[in-house]
Amino acid sequence: MHEMGIAQSVIDMAIGEAERKNARAVLRVSLAIGELSGVDTESLRFCFECLKKDTLLDNATLEIDYRRRRHQCPSCLREFEVANHDSSCPHCLCQETQFLGGDELELSQLELEVA
Amino acid sequence: MNPPVMEKVAQKILSENDRIAATLRAVFLERKILCVNLISSPGSGKTLLLEKTLEAFPKTERVAVLTGDIQTDNDARRLARYGFPVRQITTAGACHLDARMVEKALADWDLASIDTLFIENVGNLVCPTAYDLGEEAKIVLLSVTEGEDKPLKYPGIFFKADLALFTKIDLLPWVPFHLDEAHANACRIHPGIEMIDLSATTGQGMDAWMQWLAQRQAKRQSASA
Hints:
heterodimer, A: alpha+beta, three-stranded antiparallel sheet, 2 helices, 6 strands, B: alpha/beta, 8 helices, 8 strands, 21% strand, globular
């Protein structure tokens, strides 16, 4: 439900960055969205498409790198994606593992058309 | 025409909200204010819990409440009866509170006279998760009239909350809710999450909740800015 606000923030940030670089247009927007971020990526795409019209992002495509929850095992040091909400280590079965990521809500990269 | 330029940004999308939240957090720390952010579905019992909590505090306690709703100031009116400062934030459509709304609502309050600040978020398990309000802890409520699998369906908030309150346990004899399963699901998403079962209606479990607040308050008072 808050994806409209998130999409607007993304567009504002992209326009700000494009203006700083004197770009004529934004061609691509790359985001990193974690599964724990509380953002629905389909809804975000829809909002982005609605809001980009008549801005520097008119022709921009949206690329979303959807990140699963990732943990690291303190015993065997291996990193793994948490499947089925089970954060115990799939390699050595250690129960208590360290959160590494999966709550991202980040504008990672822009592709700009410069004059 | 020049080839497109790739520009690395690596910036949080809600960085403006996070900036204001960080300012609020610094103020709370400096003023030794314990701020907690209550999040749940609509109808999980946030307002009743707050009513009973305010009722349990001695009148000399320095407690205040910000309560968020999409429409109406009904909750503020309910909560104002206990003699503590209460302010309604009406979001007019927004499904969550953000840091700017909290900053604005607190602007003309004398923060020197507050030790505990409760923020009752808009009833919603998804959107409030993304917005830091500068709180010391997020607290999630799950009532026994909902599903035991809510933690699995809404992992974001259960992951970010320090404490899960399982509410309306007085209804357990009449609803097919398995408390153990709900606890296990919360622990799967957030190993080590603190959990309290309570009923604001009968008072069962309220002692544990008040104790949790007192412990966090003691920790806040001893922390230095």
